[in-house]
What we know:
By secondary structure, this protein is mainly alpha-helical. The chain has one domain: Orthogonal Bundle (Hypothetical protein af1432). It has eleven helices and no strands. It has helices spanning 3-68, 70-89, 94-106, 114-120, 128-134, 137-145, 153-160, 182-198, 208-217, 225-232, 234-249. One fe (ii) ion (FE2) is lined by residues 107-108, 137, 162-163.
Amino acid sequence: MPEHRATFARPIFASLGHMTLSRVALAGASATAAAAAAVLIRHEQTRRSTERFAAAALETLLNAIDANDPETGAHVRRVAAYALILGEAADLSEHECKSIERVALFHDIGKIHEALFDIVHDVETLTPADRRAIAKHPEVGAKVLEPLKRFYPDLADGVLSHHERWDGKGYPRGLKGRRIPLAARVVAVVDTFDALTHGRRYRDAQPNDVARQVLLDGRGTQFDPDFVDLFLFPPVFAKVLGAEREVVQWKPPVQKRRTGGEDDKVPDITFRWRPGRNGARGPQASDPMHQTAR
Ligand SMILES: [Fe+2]
Ligand SMILES: [Fe+2]
């Protein structure tokens, strides 16, 4: 090309090149936006799928409690209903209320243990050895729930602490005051109320007034005084009595398939259930789940 033509042509080619580059840039930007949107959608699907799977896992655990011992199943549902009323009355956050609900529902999961189950249902008066065995149930429960620790960090610790006392004389760790996890302080109050008013096979149910007096007597020694006061505050207490009737009348719903699509399918996961696989080992001699009660 002659020099003068080349001189004229350069800006034209440069301009065409610029337009082409702009289109390419636009096309690239929209492809990036579409890819980002697809990642966000996938992320949201994964989050929902994980939530549904977690809910199904917790409901399965609750079904196991019911199947093993309907009496304990009814007890933990009432305790959870009362605990939620108390948490909401204390103006706790939704996150705290959900954590309290889980601790309340699974606080006695350690009583699934075969030897403890036999003792709890023994019509005879409990011996000191039986009482020592029953006192292991917070540790047994925490151990049962340990695999969920990464997902629900407060759950095992709350269950472990539900028999701690405000004055530090509880078990298993002798925690004192606000060092006791919040959920465990709430559950301690409502668990005692329900245990007294519904009785056990080895103990008759007490009238509400007697249970109220037990809570007042333990205010500031066994129980967090603020939660006792709030629980016995007439409008809150009236709600508790209403919830008790609702739980008694509650029937499990017919199980429907959870909503969702393909993302409901979970992969064939490998998990730790037998010795020598994925680092899993057999039970240790010091493990409270594997100590005999008698
Ligand atoms: Fe307990
Ligand atoms: Fe309980």
